[in-house]
Amino acid sequence: MPGGRYDAPTSSGRQRLSSVRVGDLDRLERQGRAQARYRRYLVRLAIIVGIAAALVIGAVVVYNSSLFSIKNVNVTGVEHLTSEEMSALAGVPSDTTLLRVDAAAIENRLKQDAWVQDVQVNRIFPDTLEIAVTERQIAAVVEVPTSDGKSIQPWAIASDHMWLMPIPDRESEAGQRTSAKVYEDADAALHIKEVPFGTNPQVGAYCTDDSVLNALDIVSGMTTELAGRVKTVYADGVEETRLVLDNNVEIAFGSADNIRDKERVALGIMEQHPDSVAYINVRDPASPTYRAL
Q1: Which of 78, 151, 195, 215 is the most buried (most CB within 10 A)?
Q2: Strand pairing category for 152-158 and 138-145
Q3: CATH code for 72-135?
Q4: What is the pTM of this model?
Q5: Which of the pair, 42 or 57, is modelled with greater confidence?
Q6: What angle do CA 121, 55, 100 make, to 5 degrees?
Q7: Which residues, other chains included, contact 39 with Cβ-Cβ below 8 Å and sequence gap of 6+?
Q8: Which residues make Cβ contacts (< 8 Å) with residue 43, sequence separation at least 6?
Q9: How far apart (Å, rounded) are the C-alpha atoms in residues 219 and 254?
Q10: Which H/E stretch holds residue 42?
Q11: Which secondary structure element, helix H or strand E, spans residue 252, and what is its range?
Q12: Does pLDDT of 13 surpass 60?
């Protein structure tokens, strides 16, 4: 039949018509697109896994190689520790690299030294390890009686009350191994004398002696010109604490209470008697006394 569709007749003599639903075509097309996306996903995943594996293998090879070997160790901020002491404390292995070096372990070892208040270890590629140290400073030199009571041992103490080190005689063998900066700072520092027998300093420990702590608190708590003029503190007891100024005026200061009032009264007396006062007692700032030459 012209212009139409003809199907072969069935056994019954009727023609059989066939058709495909639009929904089936859409479903087949969606399935095809999903399969294509899945294949692309598998390809991308394989590429990513391959790259990651290559990076891991490369990182392991580089980590275990001599690449980035440490050729220079730069130390900053150190004045009281000698180079030999720093090398021993840091303990940087000679065959390590910037990748393998244990920076945290180095920092922990250095912080065990009383002089080291803080430290940072930095890697500077390709071959330099930087150790930046913040040292404690000498706040005072405390003259501590030895255990037999027959002599005095000078001890350096920091502003945070940590005992830093016993200061050896400058001409002794130990003194020759000690940084010159220690002696320079010790000579310029406040000196605390006549501390009670039995004061027992330990390197790296915090001071617990009330007399020494009171002396340090007085000087650190001052807010007037007196702070820079105190050269010696006699600390045989908290209430017995005496200050000696750079002009040899002695001030019986007592405890570290009412520091500002005591400073104000002492300065007023010295202003009234600029060349004659030798001794001032401000233990009770409301009832001060003084003695002239």
Answers
A1: 215
A2: antiparallel
A3: 3.10.20.310
A4: 0.77
A5: 42
A6: 25
A7: none
A8: none
A9: 12
A10: helix 22-63
A11: strand 250-252
A12: no
